[in-house]
């Protein structure tokens, strides 16, 4: 059994029109929310074995703050494929995770992550910023997500539920 943690990046700023979308940083609230998500992971014994993030600054900042708060100490893997990703691309990234990892955290963006959860875990709600979904996959191989495999949505956390 594998646990996939799907996290939409925390709130980012739109204040500086000189910044490209890819380069937008987290707001102060986004920083607090990312820290909170990390504490949630630690509290529930879900510190990931691997973290894979979009290369966008807001996603990487979210991944770093979340990782630090939950006690994750390994390097964070990054891929541009999670930026503006569609379901198929997200499934490919998940499918490439090494099977030695039992818990994986991916950090990315909407609408791709929300659609991924709809099609692969039966989620029927919006995926707001700093919202985390826990999906339990059947089987012991990540590569099953490359196919139309489904996982079971176990729980969703959101900073507004604090």
End-to-end Cα distance, whole Å, is: 28 Å
Overall SS class: alpha/beta
What's the main sheet like? 6 strands, mixed
Number of strands: 6
N-to-C order of helices and strands:
EHEHEHEHEE
Low-confidence stretches: none
Summed over residues and divided by their number, the pLDDT gives a mean of 93
TL;DR?
The chain is an alpha/beta fold and 162 residues long. The protein has four helices and six strands; from the N terminus they run βαβαβαβαββ.
Walk me through this protein's architecture.
There is one protein chain. The chain is of the alpha/beta class and 162 residues long. It is built from four helices and six strands; from the N terminus they run E-H-E-H-E-H-E-H-E-E. Helix 3 packs across helix 4. It starts with a strand and ends with a strand. The model has no long low-confidence stretch (mean pLDDT 93).
Features:
single chain, 162 residues, alpha/beta, six-stranded mixed β-sheet, globular
